Amino acid sequence: MPNLAKKNIAISIPTGIGADIGGYAGDFGYIARKFSRYFHTVINPNAVNGGIFSAINNDMSYLEGYLFDEFFEGKISITPKKPYEQNKIGIIFESVIPKNVLNIHLNTLSALEMVKGIKTQEIIYTKKEVGVEIKIENGISYGNLKNPKTLLDAADNLVKKGIEAIAVVCYFDEDTEDEDYSNGIGIDPIGGVEAIISHLITKNFKIPCAHSPAFLNYDISEHVENKKVSSEMISSTYLPCIMEALSIAPKINDYKNGLIKNKDIEYLIVPTTAMGSKSVLAADKNNIKIIAVDNNTVCDADYKKLNIEPFAHFKTYEECLENII
Fold it and tell me: For residue 260, what is the DSSP state?
């Protein structure tokens, strides 16, 4: 349970739009932790996921993008976990993951259980290939699933067994390396399709979900990399960050029964150029204070174009924090 003396805020870092801060590998994590010292913080998974590391703590509520929008539209509410309370996590592996790659992920699950006590309650394999297709267009990453039903069938099986949060591991058998992204100046090439995978589960089951890719090449980098992507470059699997965060992800309730509702959010903090999301438009409609922070993205939706009057506009997240605490 969060510290009830703290006010609630939300920070939006949308996936796959090349945010200068938060568009890489957990590179918003240290900032999220600063905000969580003073506020209970609703946050996007990609903002705190960093390969083998996670910036998550019990003063953050990890809310996947679809649920983030649903929350601000007043369709759901959330109840954060109490300290040391954990969700029952189930994991879905795509059936076509090669044995050598799968073994690395299974060893990772064992390590999480032994070191951190994060136990996987159920493991299930899809009956068919999911078929992930990656696409990038106009600077935005997205993609497609050839067979989404096989994922839904697996998730349905887990939910019927009492699972409270779902991790998904799909196979990426094509080269997803991007030189710009590796240098900390491009977009995450797989972020968009990962959002499609998690949206599919959360939309149908209203349950916390996050995706971790299984790559054909799982070698870690031998070079000194840009700090923004360094956590991915030392990770052969990204399962640790999503498992740690899913273990304490909030319970999703109907609007009346959760502890925290959209009206309980003091501020919604968003990049200045990415204010066209459902969550921002809903917050504006419901008189929730919106704060714009300069954090470049490939989007072109600032508050002037959308005729939204923000509560405040800051140049940096540090400046924002200093002015709202």
Answer: B
Helix (H, G, I), strand (E, B) or coil at 53: strand
Which residue range(s) make up the domain with 40? 7-83+252-324
In a domain, 241, yes or no: no
Tell whether 98 and 218 lie within a shared domain: yes
Half-sphere exposure of 43 (CA within 13 A, CB side): 32
- Spatial separation of the C-alpha atoms in residues 60 and 35, rounded to whole Å: 9
- Sequence-distant (6+) residues with CB within 8 A of 7 are 39, 40, 266
Q: Report the alpha-carbon angle 117-122-124, nearest 5.
A: 135
Q: Is 63 a member of any domain? A: yes
In a domain, 242, yes or no: no
Structure tokens at 94: 């795509």
Nearest to 235 by CA among 88, 111, 127, 138: 111
Domain identity same for 93 and 78: no
| Average pLDDT value for the chain | 92
**Residue 47: how many other CB atoms lie within 10 Å:** 27
State pLDDT tens for residues 154-209: 999 999 999 999 999 999 876 566 666 666 666 666 777 888 999 999 999 999 99
Q: Are both 126 and 145 inside the same structural domain?
A: yes
Residue 210: beta bridge partners? 167
**Average confidence (pLDDT) over 296-301:** 90
Same domain, 64 and 99: no
What are 106-118's pLDDT values in tens digits? 999 999 999 999 9
